[in-house]
Amino acid sequence: MSDRRAIIIDTDPGQDDALAILLALASEEFEVIGITTVAGNVPLPLTEKNARKICELAGKPETRVFAGASRPLVRDLVTAEYVHGKSGLDGPDLPEPAMPLQAQHGVDFIVETLRERASGEVALCTLGPLTNIALALVKAPDIAPKIREIVMMGGGFFEGGNTTPAAEFNIYVDPHAAATVFKSGVPITMIPLDCTHKALTTHERIDAMRAQGTKVTTAAAELIDFFERFDEDKYGTDGGPLHDPCVIAWLLKPDLFSGRDCNVEIETGSELTMGMTVVDWWGVTGRAKNAHVLRDVDANGFFGLLTERIARL
Ligand code: BDR
Ligand code: CA
User: Fold this and answer.
1) CATH number assigned to the domain comprising residue 152
2) Which of 3, 49, 67, 286 has a CA that sits 20 to 30 A from residue 55's CA?
3) Ligand 1 atom at minimum distance from 80 CA
């Protein structure tokens, strides 16, 4: 067993997913065992291709990328081209990837890896809808106690939702998968909009990234330039929230974040509030605490870490 922390990244790239993948691949603390992709921001054929583009941008074409679920468990797929562009990765002109897609299904890769590795060795970093993780837990319930933790970007409570008034995109797209994951007993750190809306891509922060002048930091700044324009208009802020890299940053530097243990339940019954993450922040229900919910981030520290790390690639 190596000293590095073994992670699987489950993702639907997406510009902010791309930044998260770059941060992970740049950080020697991690062994990125594989990247599994899911339908979300754009359909699966694009998310798996985008993941490979990003591995090549990082100079890590040996990274294994697997395609997982092409649709949510129960509901129809909802995508977000209006945020991420037609390709899901609009912005820089990234070449078509030459590295292969792995033949194995992403869900089978997750199951096989967890069975092979020691208990508590592998963490799952989820950056998209939770379909692959729920399918793995249903197919192979024996893996649940082996998962070290799930660190997810998803949900929103005090901030409300970004896709409906009640629901954040990743949970809204597959609420039934999210409900399965939150009931699994696996330790969960949830990074909701309440936290990521404080990680704003201000001009000063992105200019500092661009000023590094490397191929990767230039492409990263271009990805952010495209991605933030929608949220700047929506929220009227300088820059938009950079959601998914918070997952990797939390694993690298938890001191940048603060939160508390809570009960979290997922709404799957009401069409009006479908996919809402009901967080018992004040402990009023007595329901068992099933997640560590982050609410704050030191945004300058976060962007400093991100920039310093991806400039190494
Ligand atoms: C989440 O939805 C996606 O659009 C982003 O990639 C992020 O994972 C934010 O709600
Ligand atoms: Ca995402």
Assistant:
1) 3.90.245.10
2) 3
3) 4
